[in-house]
Amino acid sequence: MEKSICIFGDSTAWGAWDLEKGGWVNRLWFHVGKRSTDEDYIEVYNCSISGGTTDTILERFESEAKIRNATTLIFQTGGNDASYQATPDNFLVPVEKFKQNIEEIIKRARKITDSIIFTDLKNCDESKTMPVPWIDICYKNENIKKYSKIMEEICRKLDVLFLDVPDLANSEFEDGLHPNVAGHKKIFEVVRDFLIQQRLI
């Protein structure tokens, strides 16, 4: 059976600022693309969008996953949900809505496949993200980690795989929010090793 991995996420999953290989998802595609036999054939689809949140994932992931015959779904999310505008409690996706969204994503994803993974990117370089230069939105490590912890707890409760990506160093960010080449390489290696451990690639 051919394997099809669909990744839904934000600009980090989309690949922003990896001008060498196009981001950690594209690096994953390069990795599985080197397999030499038909039995090892795996398709990797990057279905991520800049600015993506759990709201935007819910709006579209089912149809996109089904048309690609997804056998594994990976969701990298939480960072944009945890950002805020104007006041520190004005989150892009409020905490309770975020919890509901994660649970609903899992519920719908299970109608497509049992192979479901959530992953995070739980830090930024706050010296450059309060706010980010291109829009009046703030990203704070405390909030990002809080949303990541919520996601991890829900995954544990509902028996869904959760991949905790180690914090990136400030030197591994391009603009304080998006990983640079070194950051994307680090994320790719963590994801690759996890998928090998789970026998998904």
What is the topological layout?
Elements (H helix, E strand, L loop, with lengths): L2 E6 L2 H4 L9 H10 L8 E5 L7 H14 L4 E5 L18 H15 L6 E4 L21 H17 L3 E3 L17 H17 L4
Parallel strand pairs: 1-2, 1-3, 3-4, 4-5
Helix pairs in contact: 2-6, 3-4, 4-5
Structure at a glance:
The protein is an alpha/beta fold and 201 residues long.
Description:
This protein is of the alpha/beta class and 201 residues long. The chain has one domain (3-197): 3-Layer(aba) Sandwich (Rossmann fold). It is 38% helix and 11% strand. It has six helices and five strands, in the order E-H-H-E-H-E-H-E-H-E-H. The chain has helices spanning 11-14, 24-33, 54-67, 95-109, 141-157, 181-197; strands spanning 3-8, 42-46, 72-76, 116-119, 161-163. A five-stranded parallel β-sheet has the order 2-1-3-4-5, with helices on both faces. Helix 2 crosses helix 6 and helix 3 packs parallel to helix 4. The longest helix has 17 residues, at 141-157.
For this entry, give a set of tags.
single chain; 11% strand; 5 strands; 5-stranded parallel sheet; Rossmann fold; alpha/beta; 201 residues
Described by strand count, sense and barrel closure, the largest sheet is:
5 strands, parallel
Query: How much beta, percentage-wise?
Result: 5-15%
The number of E-state strands comes to: 5
Number of domains: 1
Please name the fourth-level CATH homologous superfamily. SGNH hydrolase
CATH class: Alpha Beta
Can you give the helix content as a percent range? 25-40%
Question: From the 3D coordinates, which CATH architecture would you assign?
Answer: 3-Layer(aba) Sandwich
Q: Rg from C-alpha positions?
A: 16 Å
The total of helices stands at 6
Described by the principal axes of the CA atoms, the overall outline is: globular
Structural class: alpha/beta
Overall mean pLDDT? 96
Strand order of the largest sheet: 2-1-3-4-5
Order of helices and strands: EHHEHEHEHEH
Give the end-to-end Cα distance, rounded to a whole number of Å. 13 Å
Low-confidence spans? none
CATH fold field value: Rossmann fold
